[in-house]
Amino acid sequence: MATAARRLGKVRRSSARGRATLGAATVFALVCTLFNPAAAAAATAQEKALAESLFKEGKALLSKDPTKACEKLAESQRLDPASGTALNLADCQEKLGRLATAFGTYQIAEELARERNNSARVALIKKKLKSLEPKIPHLRLVASTPLPAGAVLSLDGTTLGAAAIGTELAVDPGEHRLEVRAPGFEPFVKDLKIAEGASSEVECGPLKRSPAEAKPKAPKPSWPLPAFVATAGVAAVGLGFGIGAGVRAIDLGAVVSAECPENACTATGLDALSEGDRFATASNVAFVLAGVFGAAATTFLVLEFVLEPSEVQLQVGISGGASELGAAISGSF
């Protein structure tokens, strides 16, 4: 049974070091779970010697510095679990106001005393447990609405299962922190202060949904400005060529008027007529292309300084023949 005592000592040590524990009910459950003779090896001679030194020093500090005394006794119990050490450690924890923790440690001391058939110590511990139990505060966690899937509860850093909801949990008097976390929700945190012997009920929530994470904005492409320069240049050239061709067509029209009186043209008039048609067509084509490229340049300019490329849809169409030419530009912004 010494192996079980060693394991129980480790349970007690964990309870003693926490800022607050779930108290007697939880510790006792762990005691029952871990009371297994095959759980650990017996203390070595070296561990027993160290444990004895720590026990003596811890006991001497009980009246002077309970905090340090608890540390010494807890380490002694970890090295070599014993009912006397656990009893003194529980007394130390009780002096510090860790009532639920002390209750659990008293229970461990009782189990160890029973293991060694120490009936007098068992009777002493029972009296201490009976005296201490009414002083232990209890906390009941409730959830008026079901917690989200994946929710995790914790009290003072100790993770709790869903079974903790609705159960009266023995806790140490003083300050505690309740936390509830769930994927997609903001953490719920509540600080509590529980008085000795009190019974408190605390709502686990409500949890607020986390604001939707903004999608990272894609970097703005670098091509709209160069495209604007190129298309604006083509539009300018087309406009210049169209004006020049149009002026030339007008000049040739004057020649045709002079050389073709009454629908009879001289050779010069016929040449001017043919050449004028070509310049007029070229001028029309140049103006249409200048308009198309000018519209494209305007779009690229807007993309660079106002909108994103994904926000613009542009369609360009050109129709007509040699004598007539047209263009259509449509889009959405």
Description of the molecule:
53% of the residues lie in helices and 15% in strands. With 333 residues, it is an alpha+beta fold. The protein has 3 domains: 2-134, Serine Threonine Protein Phosphatase 5, Tetratricopeptide repeat, CATH 1.25.40; 138-203, Sandwich (Immunoglobulin-like), CATH 2.60.40; 224-332. The strands form 3 sheets. Strands 3-2-5-6 form a 4-stranded antiparallel sheet, with no helix packed on it. Strands 4-1-7 form a 3-stranded mixed sheet. It has a two-stranded antiparallel sheet with strand order 8-9. The longest helix is centred in the C-terminal third of the chain and has 39 residues, at 267-305. Residues 1-40 have low confidence and may be disordered.
Helix content: 40-55%
Tell me the CATH topology of the largest domain: Serine Threonine Protein Phosphatase 5, Tetratricopeptide repeat
- Going across the biggest sheet, name each strand in turn: 3-2-5-6
What is the CATH level 1 assignment of the largest domain?
Mainly Alpha
Low-confidence stretches: 1-40
Radius of gyration (CA) equals 46 Å
In the residues, how many domains can be counted?
3
- What overall geometry do the principal axes of the alpha carbons give? rod-shaped
DSSP helical segment count? 9
The biggest sheet amounts to: 4 strands, antiparallel
CATH superfamily of the largest domain: Tetratricopeptide repeat domain
Helix and strand pattern? HHHHHHHEEEEEEEHHEE
- CATH architecture tag of the largest domain: Alpha Horseshoe
The termini sit apart by 82 Å
Number of extended strands: 9
Structural class: alpha+beta
Give the strand content: 15-25%
Can you give the mean pLDDT? 77
